[in-house]
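Dear colleague,

Thank you for sharing your sequence with our group. We've completed the structure prediction you requested, and as agreed, I am returning the results in plain text so they can be pasted directly into your records. Please verify that the sequence below matches your submission; if there's any discrepancy, let me know and we will rerun it promptly.
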Amino acid sequence: MSRTIKGGVHPPEHKELSELVYPLSQHIGRPAKPVVKKGDHVLVGQRIAEADGFVSACICSSCSGTVKAIEKRRTNAGTYGECIVVDNDGQFTEAPDYGKEVSWETLTNEEIIGKIRDAGIIGMGGAGFPTAVKLMPKNPDAIRHVIVNGAECEPYITCDDQLMRTRADDIVEGLQIVMRLFPNAEGVILIEDNKPEAIAAMTAAVAGHGHVRVVVAKTKYPQGGEKSIISLVTGIYTKVSELPAEAGCIVDNVATVLAIRNAVRFSEPLIRRMVTVTGDAVAKPSNLIVRIGTSARPREVSARE
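Please find the predicted structure tokens below.
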């Protein structure tokens, strides 16, 4: 029997608020495979799970702390999945190579792909396809368009709009890195016309960069899908079974392209992203930069609070 003091109270513990939970299946393809175990100490940017196959993606820790468990947890998909749970120590101590700047112009195409794969980057527009796989089509010379998807046609969300307004130059650099892989391609940044500040920022950012242009589209749902964007930019209509590469296109979301830039130039794995928190029930609608693994569950309030 546990020993205790006389008297005292039982306030809500909320110990779980310091946890970061990393589902091993955050992408299309096979779930990642843990490379840590319970009790291990991890650092910011350290790989905690490796890709398990060609179509898979590794996962890196967004905090420093101790692996608390590897167990099934409920994910934001509403199902239970295997997860790595890290008890955040609040120090955010970085791994030795985290943030190391390199000159990407000196890298080979294989090295660029390797850095994107090692960073665990997946499509951040919703599909979650491993980006390194997408950037390795059978015939790179046949790619004619590298398209940055800034349509953001869905209601409510504005995080891509915010990124284009504030990180335009960095997004263009990410686009240039991708274009290095496809020597015959032009770069296109597609934005819907309800984002005038983003259009202005991206137009200014592409000035002076050859073979890169901004295309403005009429605001309409659901033209943010890959096939709709390809038809808007190229006039090519693809079949349901066709991949974008078969139409000579590579399509990546704005946030994905920014993550590519951060990974290739600054050795930063995908450990955070911007999300929109909004709606009629939200007191302060915001675009927030959130570390991967952060719980989206509202804090439970007990009857005593």
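Summary note from our side: The longest helix spans residues 168-180.

Kind regards,
the structure core
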